[in-house]
Amino acid sequence: MSVYHDEVEIEDFEYDEDEEIYYYPCPCGDQFQISKAELAAGVEEATCPSCSLVIKVIYDKEAFAAKQEELIREEEKQLVIQKFHIMDFEKEER
């Protein structure tokens, strides 16, 4: 069992869309971090790369997983729409 410096709600983290990582300030001056993939896998500990502190991330695992699945479906839908637009454009070019 880990000893947590604190317990923090996921909503209090800052999310970097490019890196797909959630960040939260650490007392040492760096930031705790946890990736979207780790959260999807059920990990609930965010670590600081500069010190030994660990915090527990409070989030609804089922709701998080459902949201990720919804985002994936929406991305796939957009790819299909783009593909059909390209096919229509190519037909018009002929």
TrEMBL record:
The entry's keywords: Iron, Metal-binding
Any one Gene Ontology BP term: protein histidyl modification to diphthamide
All copies of domain DPH-type MB, residue ranges: 4-60
InterPro entries per the UniProt record, alphabetical: DPH3/4-like (IPR044248), DPH_MB_dom (IPR007872), DPH_MB_sf (IPR036671)
Pathway participation: Protein modification; peptidyl-diphthamide biosynthesis
Domain of life: Eukaryota
Reaction(s) the record says it catalyses: 2 [3Fe-4S](0)-[protein] + 2 Fe(2+)-[Dph3] + NADH = 2 [4Fe-4S](1+)-[protein] + 2 [Dph3] + NAD(+) + H(+); [3Fe-4S](1+)-[protein] + Fe(2+)-[Dph3] = [3Fe-4S](0)-[protein] + Fe(3+)-[Dph3]
Pfam families, alphabetized: Zn_ribbon_CSL
Gene Ontology molecular functions: metal ion binding
Family: Belongs to the DPH3 family.
Name the record gives this protein: Diphthamide biosynthesis protein 3
Organism (species): Tetragonisca angustula
Record lineage: Eukaryota, Metazoa, Ecdysozoa, Arthropoda, Hexapoda
